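Write out the 3D structure for:
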Amino acid sequence: MDTATSPRRLCRLEDMPNGEAMALDVVLPTYGEESVILLRQDEHVSAWLNICPHAGRRLDWAPGKFLISRGMLVCAAHGASFNIDNGECIGGPCRGESLRGVPVRVELGDVLLDA
């Protein structure tokens, strides 16, 4: 198996609280080591770089702790609100911009990074 293109296990789905987000430091082919937000919604996981497009700061209010309110992920620095379904900013200083997605999938209970 070619490890450069094979998926990498990030965590177990069962270790992620449903409806909440967490952060992991992940080595990504394009960006190098970055903090990645993983957000679980039932059996689906969305992932984005933990970088607000407004000022390039992390979104978490404490390491790995995120504010999720009314279907939005809220940046702790300036209050930008991102749709948890697609990462688009729907309120705040970067309205219309989006978080940079990270390709992941759930397979047999594992959350995998797609290279």
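Residues 87 and 99 are 5 Å apart (CA to CA).
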